[in-house]
Write a structure and sequence with these properties.
Aminopeptidase; acyltransferase; Bact_Acetyltransf; about 25% helix; 7-stranded mixed β-sheet
Length: about 190
């Protein structure tokens, strides 16, 4: 757990674009945040290992996603005075002021200290500064705690569902046959 008190973060902290050299660390952080322990660290409250197994992403997949989505931004977050990435997020314009937010990840060893809430707020500010009016996200339907976390931050269920891509292990190997994505949205203006 972080020594930084909840909601007491350095004010000069900002999101910056990930460099090619950051990709391996982003992949490691994302897989830890989405799948839990690598054997040495505690599992975070937001891990999905009960629903999906395997890696959430790989360097090859992430580099491919970046190459086919030239307008997307993979942003990283470092705390002032500390080494290493404590968070990352994918932001992509969808047109008409809509943006997609995906792969929000905070180091599981530092969860429950307000870092996720702060990272989400920084991502929303980043989108706002670029003229974004809405942020869209998708969350796996069985992640009720995570859906509730987003709803407490102003996101609402759009009533739309997207099918889970069974047979495409890009998101991991499903452990259930009832998965789908819940579409959530937040109005920024």
């Amino acid at each position: 757990m972080s020594d930084i008190p909840k909601d007491d973060f350095p004010t000069s902290v900002e999101l910056v674009p990930a460099t090619d050299d950051d990709i391996p660390e982003v992949v490691r952080l994302t897989n830890l945040a989405y799948r839990g322990s690598d054997g040495d660290s505690a599992e975070g409250w937001s891990t999905r290992e009960k629903y999906l197994t395997g890696d959430r992403t790989t360097e090859k997949l992430l580099r491919n996603d970046l190459s086919v989505s030239p307008h997307a931004s993979l942003l990283i977050w470092r705390l002032e005075g500390e080494s290493g990435i404590v968070g990352s997020v994918w932001l992509e314009p969808q047109g008409d002021g809509n943006w997609y937010l995906g792969s929000l990840a905070v180091d599981p060893a530092r969860q429950n200290g307000g870092l996720g809430k702060k990272l989400l707020s920084l991502a929303e500010d980043w989108v706002r500064e670029r003229g974004g009016r809405h942020i869209n996200i998708t969350v796996i339907n069985v992640r009720e705690t995570l859906i509730g976390w987003y709803e407490r931050r102003g996101y609402y269920d759009m009533g739309e569902r997207e099918p889970f891509p069974y047979g495409d292990d890009r998101f991991g190997v499903p452990q259930r046959d009832d998965l789908c994505f819940v579409k959530l949205q937040k109005k920024l203006v």
